[in-house]
Structure formats: structure tokens, C-alpha cells
Amino acid sequence: MAVHPRRARFLRAFRRLLLLAVLGGLLWTGGLFWFAASIPRTPPPPGSAEATRGTDAIVVLTGGSGRLSTGLELLADGRARKLFVSGVYEGLEVQELLKRSRQFPGEMECCITLGYSADSTIGNAYETADWLREQGFTSMRLVTANYHMMRSLLEFRMVIPEVDVVPHPVASPNVHLNDWWLWPGTANLLMTEYNKYIVTRLRYTLEKLIES
């Protein structure tokens, strides 16, 4: 029995769309596994060049466990002259920061600046850029969650390409990167972060094309 030409065209178009959807899904899935494998599992080893390298400032992006304490420890160790905390909100995290800053020697509280205007990673980059330029700083150590680092570096590279950024990823005990697909919470977090990274990478690539 002959198939109606219009139905035949529809079936061909449907098969093409289905094939593209399958290929797109495979590409996205492969990229997700690459993204998860690229996340550093541990911070820079003590004594390594990356860990001991000094910068003008330490910048902490709020939003995850361990970031603020890591930033304070780096400042106390003399890794930078000042600490900037971007994306601060009024709550327990800030109170803990101010309380802990008074426990370190050398009146460390005077070397800490809090930024209240950022509510996203893009906002973090712009808020930090304004502060760095105001201070005349040209290098910084970026402290954020390990799964958030790749996207953060891209955002900062777009906003302040002239600043030397040293990554200092922080591993959260609640994010299970080994066999992450077996942990629903971690899997959902990584998928969300991977999608945001794709969007940021597209923006970065587009900006580079426009500049060239």
C-alpha cells in the first residue's frame, strides 16, 4: 500500500528530528560525564606552587560550605593582603565570618571587605571587578566550590581579563563526585551546573567571535 506523499514527508522529517534529538542527547550526556570528571576532587596540595603562590587579594564567592573558612585561613597564612567576600547576605554565614575574623591574630578584620550587591556568578564577577580596580589589584585567588570553579573562571575572564586569577577549589563533603550518578542530589546539582556552564561557554565564545 502506497504511503501518501505528505505523510511520507512527515515521517522523514520526524525521523531526522528523532535522530538529531538522540545525537544531541548523547552529546549532552558525554559532555556531562566530561564535566564531572574535570572537577578537581581536592584543593591544591599544601606546599605546591599553586597552593603557596601569593596574590594581591583572596576572593570568596558565598553559597557553599567551607568557602569562608578557607578564605580566612588563606588570609591568615599571608597568601594575600586582603579578603573580599562577594555575594554576602544577612544571615548566619556573615555572623560566623565576622566572629571568626576576630579570632585570628593581627587584627585580620581590617583586611576583610564584604560585598552585598551580587546575587549570581555574573554579579560576583562584576562586584569583584569593581573592588579590585578600586584597590588597584591585578591578581586574586578565587575560592569557590570545586563544581562551580569552571563556570566562575569563565565569568571572571569575561569581566576582568587583565587580572591574574588563581583557582582555589573547595570540596564539599555533601557533594559525592565519585559515582555521582548514584547520588540523586549530586547528580541534579551537576546537571544544573553543567547546563549553566554550557550557556556561559556559549556567551564566552560569542564574545570572542565579536572581538575578533
TrEMBL record:
<protein>
    <submittedName>
        <fullName>YdcF family protein</fullName>
    </submittedName>
</protein>
<dbReference type="InterPro" id="IPR003848">
    <property type="entry name" value="DUF218"/>
</dbReference>
<dbReference type="Pfam" id="PF02698">
    <property type="entry name" value="DUF218"/>
</dbReference>
<dbReference type="InterPro" id="IPR051599">
    <property type="entry name" value="Cell_Envelope_Assoc"/>
</dbReference>
<feature type="domain" description="DUF218">
    <location>
        <begin position="56"/>
        <end position="182"/>
    </location>
</feature>
<dbReference type="InterPro" id="IPR014729">
    <property type="entry name" value="Rossmann-like_a/b/a_fold"/>
</dbReference>
